[in-house]
Structures are given as C-alpha cells and as structure tokens.
Amino acid sequence: MYPHITQYIDGEFIQGDGRRETDVLNPATNLPIGKLPHATSADLERALSSAQRAFESWRNSSPMLRSQILRKVGELARERAQVIGRNITLDQGKPLAEAVGEVTVCSEHADWHAEECRRIYGRVIPARSSQVQQTVLREPIGVCVAFSPWNFPFNQAIRKVAAAIGAGCSVIVKGSSDTPSAVVAIAQLFHDAGLPPGVLSVVWGDSGMISDHLIRSPIVRKISFTGSTPVGQQLAALAGSLMKRCTMELGGHAPVIVCDDADIDTAVDQLVGYKFRNAGQVCVSPTRFFVQDGIHDYFVDRFVAKAQAIKVGDGLEAGTRMGPLAQRRRIAAMEGFVDDARQRGANIRTGGHAVLGAGNFFAPTVITDLPEDARFLNEEPFGPVAGIVRFTNLEDALQRANRLPFGLASYAFTRSAKNAHAISRGLEAGMVSINHIGLALAETPFGGLKESGYGSEGGIETFDGYLTTKFISQLN
Ligand code: NAD
Known about the structure:
The protein is an alpha/beta fold. The chain has helices at residues 41-58, 63-79, 81-92, 96-116, 153-167, 181-192, 207-216, 229-241, 264-276, 293-308, 329-343, 394-401, 417-426; strands spanning 7-9, 12-14, 21-26, 31-37, 123-125, 132-140, 143-147, 170-174, 200-203, 220-226, 245-249, 254-258, 286-292, 347-350, 365-368, 385-391, 409-413, 431-434, 453-454, 467-475. Helix 8 links the parallel strand 10 (220-226) and strand 11 (245-249).
C-alpha cells in the first residue's frame, strides 16, 4: 500500500540493493510501513558527478523547455494528488484533506516557476563610450543541495526543486527520513515530465553524514535548508567557511496581535483553524497570542471552545481534523512546555496531555496567564499548543512580539488603519498578515529575518538564491 522508497540518481530509481535500511513509521500507529534505503558515499559521489554533468547542459537549456517541464509537473501533481496525499498521511500523519491540499496547492509552485523562469532578465547599462557595450547577465549558480523537512514534505521540497531547476541549476535533494514518500513522488513527477537525467537527484540516509559530504564537495555551489535554527546555523557555518551561498528557512515563533477593535469572531475562527493545522508543526504557525485587555476573556473562551471541538485521530479516518505529531519525540517536547508553564503558575485551559494510544497524539492545547520567562514564550513549540497573553497598549505588544531572536511570520487583527500601519511597520518579521491568513502563496515571497534565516522562496525573488550576477564590458 505504501510506496517503495527509492533513491533517484542520474535518472534511475535505485532500490535498497543491500544498502543499510531503516523503518519508515506511521505516526498514527508507530508501526513500520516501509523501508528507507541509506545512501553510501559512492551514491553521493554518483549524485554529485551526474549533477555536475547535467548542469553543464541544463544551464544552456532554453527557459521555454524548463517552463514546459515545470508546467507538466504541476499538471501531473494535480492528477496524482489523491495518491501522493494519502501516502503523506501515512508517513507524516496530517489529515487526508490537508495532505491532498498540500499537493494540489503546492502544484502552483511548479506553475509559478514555469511562468517566472521565462522572465529571468539581465540588463544593459548605458556606457560612457559609444564603443563600449555593458551588459549584466544572471546565470545559474551551479549544483545545488536542498534539505527539506518532514512537516510539509511535498511543499518544502517542490519549492526548492522548482526554483533550482527553473533557474537552470541541477539539484540534489535530501528529504526527511521520517516522511520520504512525497520526495520520491516529486522525483517521479519530474522523471515523467521529461527532465534529463542528473538534473534532479534524491538521496536518503543519515542527515549529518550526507550534509557534511555534499556541502564540502567542491561541486556544490549552493545550499537550501528548511528546518530548525540550530541545524541551519551549523549548515550555514560550514557553507560559509567554504563561501557557498545559502537559503535558510528556519524556525519561527509567530506572534499574533489581536486588538480590542478587531472582528473577534472572525479572528478566532481563522486562528484556531490555522493554529492546529498540521498539529501546529508549521514554521509560520501562530503561537504567541497577544490579546488586548478589553476582549481577552471573550477571545480565550471562544478559542478554547473551538480547540476542544477539534477531532484528533488517524488522518485517514473521516472527520479527523488533527492528526498525530510526526515523531514520538515531539510528545515529550510538548509535555516539557506544558509542565514548565504549569510550574510557573500558568493556566492550562484545555489539553496539555498526550492522548492515550499507540500513535503520537497530543490534545489541542491552550495556555493562558503565561509569565514572560515561561519556556513557551521563549522557545519555538512547533506543535499544537497556543499561548495567550494580555496586553494593554500596542507599543508594549510590539516590543514583546519582537523580543525573541525569531522573525518569520506574524499576524494581527484590528479594524483600525492606524494600528494596522503601526503593526506592519513595527513587527520584526519577514511576513506580516493582517485581518486574515494570507501567507505562503506561490506568487508571494516566503522567508524570515534574524535567526529565522535568510533568502526568499516564492514571489519574483524566488530565483535570486539560484543565480549569479555577471557584468560584461565589451569594447567593439
Ligand atoms: P531537528 O533540529 O533535529 O531537525 C530539523 C530538520 O533538520 C529535520 O528535517 C532534519 O531531518 C534536518 N536535519 C537535522 N540534522 C541535519 C543535518 N546535519 N543536515 C541536514 N539536515 C538535518 O528537529 P526536529 O525534532 O526534527 O524538528 C523540530 C524542530 O525543527 C522545530 O523546533 C522546528 O524549528 C524545526 N523545523 C522547522 C521546519 C520549518 O518549516 N522551518 C520544518 C521542520 C522542522
């Protein structure tokens, strides 16, 4: 039922064939559903040499061809969304509708890159002499390596692959060992769409060994990573020591500012849905809720009631609105935040515990009255826990929202144009969404500030990380 997990190197799907293998688990049961083959050093060398060879011709391919292949990938992904989505539910846990939605919505990344890759323009700079021609070219940077995470296994990988391939680069992807089916499906999509061998490779195995091997290789020119801040810092440090370009999409701890004058019911409805989507394992998940005094109690009561109504269960069961956490260790992580909050006198208004059973289920949790030094208000929870605190004046809320080293997503609800302006200017974040949830569309840039990383995926900025700038001055 669950697909065979293979590597994909030089246009070939490669089975385990005696390589070390580890189990892939279903987080709803913790039972094995498949085997993950681990790359050997020879596999990595083969992926590198084929990526180098493929780059030499792919860099000169016409943007029209790149566009056609990306467009075809988008079409095929939509056709296969049910199957790919079901496999994501099996290895990642999210409810089926969310998993299928991830594939259909994220097919738009292939569409967007298909459109934009035909518009990678250079420019002509007027010269000081009529005999001189000055031009600027934007050229593909070379062989890229992409490390994609387990929370959105299709979305995060296709964004990186589409940007690299659209820019004329070749790319080696190492996805998360916990959720491999979506990345194999992406390799199959590009394979079937006619991508030449070597332009895309997929390898699996030990993250530390693979990232060290690939980043140190002189063949690799660029690294793109989505994951935790500590791992991103390690990878960026290694890449920096070798002067390699990075795009880093790291952790977040998104503040939400809800003012007295907001449409509270709409705010709660949207925020509860978004908070518990993918069991809160989302880098842009709203987590620190700053709610103004006048509406605080009403907001909390409504938020808690809606959180309690969420049906937690196996993502393949009809009616499930929140699946299990992706790994067992995330339960202990959630319990750590809750215990610390309780010890510091906070109120666990609902949830706060694992749900009994074999799977990694944790109840949707709402904590109020958190003191500023609670771990929850300082470390990224990355799970189904919302912390709600009060504020009196907006300046104070902005200061508290900006207090952490993170700066990825942020949200606000207010009917006042003055407040909205102060918030959008005042928040230290790569993305600000006001009065609705409006982030992560293919045509809009996605990325963070501070320890949330650097570089954008999506929007017209999407190719910036994959291109170099070359200036040519020619005397005729
Ligand atoms: P982790 O720090 O162990 O791993 C984070 C990610 O990095 C995983 O996908 C993992 O496969 C990968 N990774 C780990 N070591 C690596 C290495 N040496 N080279 C390359 N990749 C490596 O954390 P975790 O327990 O898996 O996940 C929880 C944390 O991860 C959260 O706190 C969250 O910040 C972060 N995370 C963020 C995103 C995101 O979308 N930004 C996605 C997934 C996880």
